[in-house]
């Protein structure tokens, strides 16, 4: 939307249309509206995850999202199974073969003593996911960027989740899944939501936004995260249970952050075996927050749930643009669920944010 | 069904034709410009930064995105002289706009070659979050760097970039008004648009054939002339190791301003095989859509005009290995629609 809107405006500016001043006013008004909307409606991620302890047929798990204190609008969901080892020739990373035909899922929405079924019966996860091949070639199935596909649990209309409500996920391992689903693997069920806050009044910020819109054309900006004293997101060592933090630069103008691309390396050893395409094996989790006080999730959540499966297609769009005020930065804590294999996985990790100036 | 003979509703048809005319005029005003630049760092020092520049254009352009020839993951780093390459070592870059009154950067940071990929051409490009204007006195500078404390790759790879831009005519010429009359006539006589493919072939051949099987072999090829005004929306090619120019013979417009650009930056090279076997081997299993690249703006091909391509095959990588496309059997296919 922002791209097309800017394209049309710039096209008319280059043409030198007679009514360029009217178009300009409309365009500037849209820019301000988008910034104000982004100020009030902020992206939020919910996650329910569980461990497939034995991954044997019939194993049932129940997991739920974290409770929230503000009402949320939940847009869609995605599912991914982490598995550090190669299975049947296909590595189960970032949602792939191991996710298919492995579970039956049933979702509930809990509210106090009542439970509302979002699905009347168990549904085989294969019905919720596009085939593994789509993970490899998402562009064939879905030309648009970052919609959360190819693993969508998309509702026909967004769902409202009230404070203290949870989304509960029941899963059951299907027969025949054992060959694909490794014991000890983790499954993440993630939901994209927005948190609304229409009470934030900041006249100085609004005036500053107006000034910037009047003075600066909209332009693209890419922000990249770095760990301290490093040029990438770098974990302290290889092995299990590593933690690190990373941050972007402070924004020098008010920005709309449209989404992120997360590429976490895989070990050089695995690359040599030709299984390099599907992302990291160490299952990084993150909790993203902005220095102006907004956290994008309550706890650390899986970073790869929504990204497409290949590093070339790892773009995830926020459900709504996030307003990053001038002087603020984004930072995140990272931890790994599985072991970091080698120096490649330890160091070659990147998160980039695609932004535009408001 | 209102009309058993499938005749369109007159009001609907009028609106549809008005939209077709508006789109065609927009295409007539728009020219795709591909700014190509490539280079490699001159040192293996981690802190070495080399800057390469796109050519000066001397006209205001709208920049909508860019691609490079790298993607993540390989058994080993290779030179970028030919086919698109996969590297596990992060080759970094930073795009800056220089030369005008307001120097600015797309990013203050050096970002990895694969930054934000998944635009077009797919794996190897960055679709910008929004377009921006490159002023007539400005150039795009790309800083190349290598970024981690990990071991330096054996060879310094060549990084190739294509910036996808649109030039917009602010004044239509008298000839343009004649073309608009052609478009009006065509839309009046044809109730529906139809999709077309224009295959670009060497003279008297059914494919693109190089003069020799070695690097440096050349090929010229062209499409058939358009029999009516056409909107060319994109191109698909199996060429991976070649450099090419595309020219519209109707108005002499060269898409890359007569500078040969790498075909590898125009397609998504290795969608066919996720196992790591990539590059030319894929040509055998390629589908046209695997290699399809949609132009930033539709290109209007006027009646009688055709698209002409000059192609130079391959190169030699830093290890002395030739990277070439096959001498025959290469495909370059333009996709379009009647106005």
Largest sheet of chain A: 5 strands, antiparallel
- Percent range for β-strand residues of chain A: 25-35%
Distance between the termini of chain A: 14 Å
The overall strand count of chain A is 19
Proportion of residues in extended strands of chain B: 35-45%
Q: Radius of gyration of chain B from the CA trace?
A: 21 Å
Class by SSE composition of chain A: alpha+beta
User: How are helices and strands ordered from N to C of chain A?
Assistant: HHEEEEEEEEHHEEEHEEEHEEEEHE
Q: Indicate the CATH class of the largest domain in chain A.
A: Mainly Beta
Content-based structural category of chain B: mainly beta
Annotation keywords:
heterodimer; A: 358 residues; alpha+beta; Jelly Rolls; 3 domains; four-stranded antiparallel beta sheet; 7 helices; 19 strands; 19% helix; B: 339 residues; mainly beta; five-stranded antiparallel beta sheet; 3 helices; 12% helix; globular
List the helices and strands and how they pair.
The complex is a heterodimer of chains A (358) and B (339).
Chain A: H1 2-15, H2 20-40, E1 41-52, E2 60-64, E3 72-82, E4 86-87, E5 90-91, E6 103-111, E7 114-117, E8 123-124, H3 132-136, H4 138-141, E9 159-161, E10 166-173, E11 185-196, H5 203-215, E12 220-224, E13 243-247, E14 255-264, H6 268-272, E15 284-290, E16 301-302, E17 315-324, E18 330-336, H7 343-347, E19 349-357
Antiparallel strand pairs in A: 1-11, 2-10, 3-9, 3-11, 4-5, 6-7, 6-8, 6-10, 12-19, 13-18, 14-17, 14-19, 15-16, 15-18
Helix pairs in contact in A: 1-2, 2-5
Chain B: H1 10-29, E1 30-39, E2 50-53, E3 61-68, E4 70-72, E5 85-87, E6 91-98, E7 104-105, E8 111-112, E9 125-134, E10 139-146, E11 159-168, H2 174-189, E12 195-199, E13 218-222, E14 230-237, E15 242-248, E16 253-254, E17 261-262, H3 280-283, E18 292-301, E19 307-313, E20 315-316, E21 322-323, E22 332-338
Parallel strand pairs in B: 4-5
Antiparallel strand pairs in B: 1-11, 2-10, 3-9, 3-11, 6-7, 6-8, 6-10, 12-22, 13-19, 14-18, 14-22, 15-16, 15-17, 15-19, 20-21
Helix pairs in contact in B: 1-2
């Amino acid at each position: 939307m922002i791209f097309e809107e800017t394209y049309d405006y710039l096209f008319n500016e280059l043409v030198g249309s007679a009514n360029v001043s009217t178009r300009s006013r409309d365009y500037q008004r849209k820019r301000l509206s988008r910034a104000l909307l982004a100020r009030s409606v902020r992206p939020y991620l919910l996650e329910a995850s569980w461990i497939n302890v034995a991954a044997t047929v019939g194993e049932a798990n129940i997991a739920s999202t974290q409770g929230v204190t503000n009402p949320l609008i939940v847009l869609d969901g995605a599912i991914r199974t982490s598995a550090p080892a190669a299975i049947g020739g296909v590595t189960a990373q970032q949602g792939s073969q191991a996710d298919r035909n492995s579970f039956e899922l049933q979702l509930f929405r809990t509210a106090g003593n009542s439970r509302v079924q979002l699905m009347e019966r168990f549904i085989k996860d294969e019905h919720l996911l596009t085939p593994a091949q789509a993970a490899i070639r998402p562009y064939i199935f879905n030309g648009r960027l970052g919609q959360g596909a190819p693993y969508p649990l998309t509702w026909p209309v967004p769902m409202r989740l009230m404070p203290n409500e949870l989304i509960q996920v029941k899963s059951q391992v299907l027969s025949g899944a054992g060959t694909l689903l490794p014991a000890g693997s983790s499954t993440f069920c993630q939901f994209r939501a927005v948190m609304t806050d229409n009470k934030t009044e900041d006249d100085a910020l609004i005036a500053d936004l107006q000034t910037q819109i009047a003075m600066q054309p909209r332009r693209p900006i890419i922000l990249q995260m770095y760990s301290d004293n490093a040029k990438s997101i770098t974990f302290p060592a290889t092995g299990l249970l590593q933690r690190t933090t990373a941050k972007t630069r402070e924004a020098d103008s008010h920005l709309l952050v449209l989404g992120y691309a997360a590429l976490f390396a895989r070990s050089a050893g695995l690359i040599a075996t030709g299984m390099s395409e599907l992302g990291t094996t160490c299952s990084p989790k993150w909790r993203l927050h902005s220095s102006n006080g907004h956290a994008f999730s309550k706890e650390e959540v899986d970073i790869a749930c929504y990204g497409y499966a290949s590093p070339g297609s790892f773009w995830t769009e926020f459900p709504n643009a996030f307003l990053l005020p001038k002087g603020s930065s984004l930072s995140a804590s990272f931890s790994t669920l599985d072991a970091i294999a080698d120096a490649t996985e330890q160091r070659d990790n990147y998160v980039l944010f695609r932004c535009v100036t408001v | 069904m209102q009309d058993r003979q499938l005749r369109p509703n007159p009001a609907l048809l009028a609106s549809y034709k008005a939209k077709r005319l508006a789109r065609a005029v927009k295409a007539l005003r728009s020219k795709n410009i591909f700014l190509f630049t490539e280079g490699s760092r001159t040192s293996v020092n981690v802190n070495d930064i080399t800057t390469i520049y796109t050519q000066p254009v001397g006209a205001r352009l709208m920049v909508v995105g860019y691609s490079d020839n790298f993607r993540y993951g390989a058994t080993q780093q290779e030179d970028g002289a030919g086919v698109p390459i996969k590297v596990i070592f992060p080759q970094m870059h930073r795009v800056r706009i220089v030369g005008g009154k307001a120097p600015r950067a797309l990013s203050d940071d050096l970002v990895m070659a694969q930054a934000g990929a998944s635009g077009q051409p797919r794996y190897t490009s960055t679709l910008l979050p929004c377009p921006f204007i490159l002023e007539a006195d400005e150039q795009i500078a790309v800083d190349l760097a290598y970024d981690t404390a990990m071991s330096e790759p054996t060879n310094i790879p060549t990084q190739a970039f294509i910036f996808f831009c649109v030039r917009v005519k602010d004044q239509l010429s008298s000839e343009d008004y004649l073309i608009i009359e052609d478009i009006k006539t065509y839309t009046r006589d044809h109730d529906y648009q139809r999709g077309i493919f224009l295959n670009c072939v060497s003279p008297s051949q059914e494919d693109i054939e190089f003069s020799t099987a070695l690097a440096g072999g050349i090929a010229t090829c062209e499409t058939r002339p358009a029999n009516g005004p056409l909107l060319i929306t994109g191109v698909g090619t199996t060429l991976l190791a070649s450099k090419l120019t595309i020219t519209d013979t109707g108005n002499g417009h060269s898409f890359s301003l007569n500078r040969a650009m790498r075909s590898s930056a125009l397609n998504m090279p290795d969608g066919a095989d996720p196992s790591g076997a990539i590059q030319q081997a894929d040509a055998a299993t390629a589908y046209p859509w695997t290699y399809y690249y949609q132009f930033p703006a539709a290109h209007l091909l006027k009646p009688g005009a055709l698209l002409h391509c000059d192609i130079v095959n391959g190169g030699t990588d830093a290890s002395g290995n030739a990277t070439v496309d096959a001498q025959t059997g290469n495909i370059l296919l333009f996709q379009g629609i009647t106005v």
